[in-house]
Design brief:
The chain is an all-alpha fold. The protein contains 1 helix and no strands. The protein starts with about 25 loop residues before the first helix and ends with a helix.
Length: about 50
């Protein structure tokens, strides 16, 4: 069986997008990733500056 008849099948690797960069993500997901990353980065930087 070929993948031609399985356009909506999530297990068909032809239907899976593998972004290499955050900019290639859908807008909502990109915003979520950036928000989480910024929170983690801020916490890390604050932990580095505490005496």
């Amino acid at each position: 069986m070929g993948s031609n008849g399985y356009k909506t099948n999530p297990h068909n690797q032809d239907n899976v997008i593998h972004p290499d960069f955050v900019d290639e993500l859908p807008k909502e997901l990109k915003q979520q990733v950036e928000t989480k990353f910024n929170a983690v980065l801020k916490a890390f930087l604050e932990s580095c500056t505490k005496d």
